[in-house]
What does this fold into?
Amino acid sequence: MSNPPVFGAGIWHFATYKDRYATEGYGPPVGLLEQIDRAGAVGDLAVVDLNWPFAGFDGTLDDVRAALERNGLRAVAITPEIYNRDFVKGSITNPDPAVRAHALRLLNDATELAKQLGCDYVKLWFGQDGWDYPFQVNYRDIWQSAIAGLRELTSAHPDIRFVIEYKPREPRNRIIFPNAARTLLAIQQVGVDNLGVLLDFGHSLYGQETPADAAQLCIDAGRLFAIDVNDNFRGWDDDMVVGSVHLVETFEFFHTLRRNNWDGVWQLDQFPFREDSVTAAKDAIRFLKALHRALDTLDEKALAAAQADHDALAARRLVQRALLTSMVDDAEVDA
It folds into this structure.
């Protein structure tokens, strides 16, 4: 039996969600400290990823520390908001040097905060860095701006890790880091040891990757620093509860991590728009625990033989046996 995983969640999991139809949100506003309390109510979470700046929060960092402590939580990461309307034409690739400088100041400040909170990494999601139309940008110029900005940031803080969370699109029609391969190419060109990948399972699905293959690529490059898990219908970044749609591919993803002895946090990046956020997190972790049991029961020797022969049906039978058994055990536990 392997050691149980450490579970985490983005703090936004416990916020109130808005869209262009429910512009005031699907529930009453939830402040940062209440979000932390909701995360603590899940029971199985050990760490949270915090957005920064703390939106609508007028308390102190000590207040945040106290909320984390009383809920038995630790901040695993800071996610700086370099994707809001201040950066509509990009952050480190913005055509305006003043905006690029502003983005780097924000990123450096976020990194100092991450160090104060004892975080493992700073998460970089460049949602506004990209383009929307053909001929809109000079591709070489924005790529070189991205590499230069990343090198300046990461070289200034060799004592903490940074991760790039890639995504094919949204809010830009094309994001500069859309997939694992292009992100790894950027990391190679930046040329530092403390820059890696956060592989969001749903982004990988949405980008028409095979998430397990993307994970293996990042692991082989020594750059899979973190993961987020969720699910979608592959046509959009739905951020559904993990395992809702792609059960077998989720299992394959975690099998790849297990096979490579990857032991990072199993972190939720879900947006329960209409569901209770605490219940959604509990349900996700219940599923992930069943998946962990299934990994323990999978016949690795028989699977290796099936894969050596590229025998899809033999592999399928082995996977189904492991998954279905774990789900039956889960039902018995609930009973």
The chain has one domain: 7-276. The chain has a mean pLDDT of 96.
